[in-house]
């Protein structure tokens, strides 16, 4: 069966993408930011996920304000980079995983989370910047990606609690997929920032650091943060952090924090990043995972149940 081995969260500041595209990563301002992701790229190269689910937000690139889905799952075979005003970023076209995406759509929707199914979509900095930060700048992205676009740009966005519960539904979906796939889930956006209005430039490191602490130790506490508190404490765009709770909901309650990085600022934003592994034989790389046979008894039972369901549905 498929399983989620780890969760990764990262800011998605568009200027980080511009720094990569314009070869400015060695400039001191940007080196400070990129140096925080060196270990993460090593971790990812070792983890070698088969699929990444990237929870991100579109910034009026794929969805104009005419139609803004709350949760939109990318089920297409590929997702080209969007033109955000300067031409599409020179990054590879993102390859999708239509089979797993369709399975997630079915499982999550029958689990009573009404996702929007998207069969054609371009992806903006919300997705491509975290991809660069974790995978570097390869000619092709190393694994297929299932984008999950979340509305955090037009009021009302989903609540923190709803996001967390969606993460749990995504996990159930992944674990009922019969093929052995190692999945990493990304939560992106944040941390504190406000781009316009009288409080433009707002950063609240105290709030951000407490958010990182609780993401590891007490995510349920974070699910009780109302929108107004995110806005007041983390700025108008700080609401992007609800997406991190989808990632967190998809992990075990008790997880291992592998790595954390926080720096202020990049452009207008506090850059935060964390890697969390599920403890059971998590992201130890394909080599050691093969040797260790990480599929625990509980997982075998879940896979057997999923198989049973598929047999009943005549899917096998
Ligand atoms: C910035 C950050 C964002 O998350 C975004 O979507 C656009 C701009 C910034 O820091 O400038
Ligand atoms: Fe943003």
What does it look like?
The protein has 316 residues and is of the alpha/beta class. Helix content is 39%, strand content 19%. The protein has helices spanning 14-21, 28-35, 38-47, 98-110, 125-135, 160-175, 205-217, 219-222, 227-234, 242-249, 285-292, 297-312, and strands at 3-10, 51-56, 71-74, 78-79, 94-95, 116-118, 145-150, 182-188, 255-266, 269-278. The protein has an 8-stranded mixed beta sheet with strand order 6-3-7-2-8-1-10-9, sandwiched between helices. It is globular, with a radius of gyration of 18 Å. Residues 286-316 have low confidence and may be disordered. Bound molecules: 3,4-dihydroxybenzoic acid (DHB) and fe (iii) ion (FE). Fe (iii) ion (FE) is lined by residues 12, 59, 126, 189, 237, 240. Residues 12, 59, 126, 189, 237, 240 line the site of fe (iii) ion.
